[in-house]
Amino acid sequence: MKEREIGIFLLLIWTAVTVFYLTWDGWVQEWEILGYSGPNQHFDFDLFDMRYIRTEDGGYIYISTNNLHNLMYICYFILFMAWAGFLFNWEWAKQGLMATIGIPFIASIVMLEKFEDSANVMMIVYHILHLSSVVPGLYLLSERKLSLRRSIPGTLGTWFFYVLSRVILEPFPYWKGERDAYYSLNQINDMPFYFYGLEYGTVILILLGVNFTITVYNLKIKSKVWRILLPIFNYMVVYIILRSLGLISFPTVDTRTWMNG
Question: CB neighbours of 187 closer than 8 A, spacing ≥ 6?
Fold first, then answer.
């Protein structure tokens, strides 16, 4: 009953985030200039109202954004595994959550670097989304053992979601990185290179590497506190390495957008 109640609570958060994502048209760069008086800072039900102009140098000037791209966010899928695993006692979802919390965890750390944007409602929702996956995931890691074999479906599910987002939101050939969607701050789809969707394999390898170390020390460590702290330490190391190598960036769009509102 305790886990079912947690699942219901996470489902309510997931549902609220879904409603927000489907109706909010705002985006961070415009908000930084105009605050909430910008033309895109509003709710609507049009999922396909994105308008943009392609420039001569191959870039884009966004006239307005849409809502659909918000649902094509890997952390959104991870939160699905969180509430589904707790609510329906699906082992694959629980193991998948435990194996992939590094993604929302690192996303949260990166977003804290943009602390000046913390008053933006989209950023607030992102933090809620990420923490709603990280906290239950750490709870599970403290209570049970991570199984690499059982976590594979959930881990590969993030890869499927990554490819799906590119197919839906970008023109063929989608792996070329020809943007047809505004990707929000720290969207994992901003990969350092593109190769027919296989570039996400690097993320899978990182997850498998960290999760292997978790399975090793889980055999020796009985303390629930250390079972929480060690994964946090591992992912902090991954974040520092990726950041120092320049593999984490802050996506931006042409700020002339608000002028065309």
Answer: 73, 251
pLDDT of amino acid 195: 77
Domain boundaries, the chain: 2-260
Residue located via tokens 């699906």: 90
CA count, 13 A, side-chain hemisphere, 216: 8
Give this prediction's pTM: 0.88
H helices present in the chain, as ranges: 2-23, 28-34, 68-71, 74-88, 91-100, 102-112, 121-143, 148-169, 201-218, 224-244
Q: Which distant-in-sequence residues (6+ apart) come within 8 Å of 59 by Cβ?
A: 254
Degrees, nearest 5: CA angle 143-235-74: 85
Residue (of 161, 167, 159, 251) closest to 207 by Cα position: 159
Interatomic CA distance for residues 46 and 44, integer angstroms: 6
According to DSSP, the residues that pair with 24 across neighbouring strands are 43
Question: How do residues 6-45 score in pLDDT, each as one tens digit?
Answer: 999 999 999 999 999 888 888 788 888 888 988 888 888 8
* Cα(179)–Cα(166) distance, integer angstroms: 9
Percent of the chain scoring above 90 in pLDDT: 46
